[in-house]
Design brief:
The complex is a heterodimer of chains A (437) and B (168). In chain A, 14% of the residues lie in helices and 36% in strands. Chain A is built from 3 helices and 24 strands. A 5-stranded mixed sheet of chain A has the order 8-9-10-11-15, with no helix packed on it. In chain A, a hairpin with an 8-residue loop joins strand 1 and strand 2. Chain B is mainly alpha-helical and 168 residues long. Chain B folds into 2 domains: 90 residues, no CATH class; 73 residues, Orthogonal Bundle (Arc Repressor Mutant, subunit A). In chain B, helix 1 crosses helix 3, helix 2 crosses helix 3 and helix 7 packs across helix 8. The radius of gyration of chain B is 17 Å and the shape is globular. In chain B, 41% of the residues are buried. Classes of the chains: A mainly beta (437), B mainly alpha (168). Chains A and B meet through helix 1 of A and helix 1, helix 5, helix 6 and helix 8 of B.
Chain lengths: 437, 168
């Protein structure tokens, strides 16, 4: 007798197996080159006869070079016998000049590991070249929160500075350093040159988690889970009340709205949840919030959900002003760890891990809403399985930039295009995105 | 009728973007990659020769998918006739030995079990769990009722679950 549970599990296994097999096939397809339709066939006929053997020799050299590059790439990323390949892996190639759908943003913003907390870098998507460096004002350090607007030319970053802070009355102890977070904005021109860094919005107490600029750049949403953090076991006099919360700053008015996230479905009653990533839908009013609650202190985070918040609601309880978009299945093959909603609200892009006999496998998924069906966009190379995946998506939601270990690339329609230089965007801490695109 | 210049360009564009995806779909149904490539090639060739205007369709993929599934059925019918006289045992999944090694044992087992399902059930499961089609879309693609899709999918999944249980 086959139970419903077994049927559901079989369906998941089938979907996973088909997707993995398709990815393996896609890798072979990516290696095969379909010659483009010649735009001007007459040119070949006009070519001089002596060019033909020269062209043949050049082709041989090109094929050998491509083979070496491909072999090197595969050797670097080749999965072991039990690991599926990542989809469409290929040597780095320039962005297609034309193609279906919108073009990916030309620039992205990240940080370099050596200067990650004091400097932002604008890089060109096509070749990862740094086109501009944006230093933070003295005394300010990045929290890791970086975000782009839908226009892909305006970027925001969250940074903090320390200030002296008397310990709360009655708590005892010495004065401690409190953290104050401010938001910074800058624009990038057609050549990738960054404009002036401008401090925007009011100060926020403590450190903030991931941030998300609204599509029009008028508001910033952030996870204020650490809002009252000022040091181990200390609280700042006059500081914010403790408790996880989502906040949205209106940059025009400076007004901050707060939604408390003490309890959220489907977490059991009485269980507090911790918000993680925030992402805006294209309407500019709906904010998706991923959150977790404790069930499994060891191994993958299993209890997770994503809710849609109506940010015109004015604040209060997140539970009262939101509805659940997706929640982790009880028996997940790929267990989602971080998730961003697509601008149209029809899917989530999420990092996930799968427990294997040898440890964990990291993957990037596209999850359809509300069905929950998913497909694997990317899997970490075998040797980087313990390396988590950092990702971000562009304003259209059709392009995803992914960084895993020394590998970085962007994905459109399930095809990975590796960037020329290894990504230097690293995570400061789990859950914080350090790339904006 | 040959397509006009712009129609030919749009056909070439669709071919470039969708060919691999369609070959994989056909390969899962047929369990044979060269045959899958032939089916997809035939579909595009027919469209080119008949001057079908893909540009007139908002989304050509459902049309192409239906044509590919029909092409796969023709192959399966031919194979059935041939099989009566000379049995063939094709490997499934349609991957080379090196490629198959890239899949975990668990995934290979699932795909092997899928290969042993009757063609109709395999078609429905592939369209559902690989192509991600809804029941209504599968019904439209295969030219059957939604009820038949539901019952075929349920029976196929149950058969798959049984096969996997027995293989443990």
């Amino acid at each position: 007798m086959i139970t419903q549970d077994e049927l559901a599990r079989t369906a998941e296994r089938l979907r996973d197996a088909l997707t993995a097999a398709a990815d393996v096939m896609a890798e072979r397809d990516a290696a095969a080159v379909i010659p483009p339709v010649p735009q001007r066939p007459g040119r070949l006929r006009r070519a001089r006869a002596w060019l033909i053997p020269l062209a043949a020799a050049a082709c041989v050299v090109a094929v050998i070079a491509a083979s070496v590059l491909l072999t090197t790439n595969l050797a670097r990323t080749s999965p072991s016998a039990s690991q599926p390949a990542h989809p469409g892996a290929s040597i780095c190639k320039p962005l297609p000049a034309t193609g279906p759908g919108p073009a990916p943003p030309r620039f992205y913003v990240t940080t370099d590991v050596a200067v990650r907390q004091i400097q932002l870098q604008v890089r060109r998507t096509s070749d990862c070249a740094i086109t501009s460096v944006v230093p933070l004002p003295a005394g300010w350090l990045l929290t890791g929160g970086i975000s782009a607007t839908a226009s892909d030319r305006t970027f925001f970053a969250a940074a903090f500075s320390a200030k002296s802070c008397p310990v709360q009355a009655g708590a005892g102890g010495l004065s401690s350093a409190a953290h104050e977070t401010r938001f910074f904005r800058f624009a990038v021109n057609d050549q990738g040159r960054a404009g002036r860094l401008t401090m925007v919005g009011p100060p926020v107490a403590g450190l903030v988690g991931p941030i998300a600029a609204s599509p029009d750049g008028s508001r910033i949403a952030f996870n204020a889970a650490d809002a009252n953090f000022v040091g181990p076991g200390k609280a700042c006099a006059g500081g914010e009340a403790a408790g996880a919360a989502i906040r949205v700053i209106d940059l025009a008015t400076g007004k901050i709205r707060t939604w408390e996230t003490s309890e959220m479905p489907p977490a059991p009653a009485g269980t507090g949840v911790t918000p993680h990533e925030v992402s805006w839908m294209a309407d500019g009013r709906t904010l998706a919030i991923s959150y977790v609650w404790p069930t499994n202190p060891y191994g993958p985070q299993l209890s997770m959900a994503v809710a849609a918040l109506d940010t015109t609601s004015g604040g209060g309880s997140l539970r009262a002003h939101s509805h659940v978009l997706w929640s982790q299945p009880r028996k997940c093959v790929f267990c989602v760890q971080e998730a961003l909603v697509s601008p149209d609200g029809k899917s989530l892009t999420a990092t996930a891990i799968q427990q294997t006999a040898h440890g964990y496998r990291n993957a990037l998924l596209r999850i359809s809403l509300p069905s929950g069906r998913y497909r694997v966009l990317y899997e970490s190379p075998a040797e980087a399985n313990s390396t988590s995946i950092t990702f971000t998506q562009d304003g259209s939601g059709q392009h995803v930039m992914v960084v895993s270990g020394a590998q970085a690339g962007w994905i459109r329609a399930g095809t990975l295009v590796l960037l020329r230089a290894p990504g230097s965007a690293l995570q400061f801490s789990p859950g914080i995105t350090t790339i904006a695109w | 009728m040959k397509p006009s210049g712009s129609a030919a360009e749009s056909l070439a564009e669709v071919f470039r973007c969708r060919r691999s995806e369609l070959v994989r779909l056909a390969a899962f149904i047929l369990g044979d990659r060269p045959a899958a490539e032939d089916v997809v090639q035939d579909v595009f060739l027919r469209m080119h020769q008949s001057g079908d205007r893909l540009a007139d369709l908002d989304d050509p993929l459902p049309y192409l998918r239906g044509a590919v599934v029909n092409g796969c059925r023709s192959v399966l019918r031919r194979r059935l006739l041939i099989g009566r006289h000379a049995g063939q045992d094709r490997p499934y999944p349609p991957l080379s030995a090196e490629e198959a090694m890239l899949l975990s044992e668990d995934r290979r087992q699932v795909l092997a079990a899928l290969a042993h399902l009757p063609a109709r059930r395999r078609e429905v499961l592939v369209l559902r769990y690989y192509a991600g089609l809804s029941e209504a879309e599968i019904a439209s693609t295969l030219g059957i009722s939604t009820g038949t899709v539901k019952s075929t999918a349920a029976r196929g999944l149950a058969a798959l679950a049984r096969a996997l249980k027995e293989s443990r």
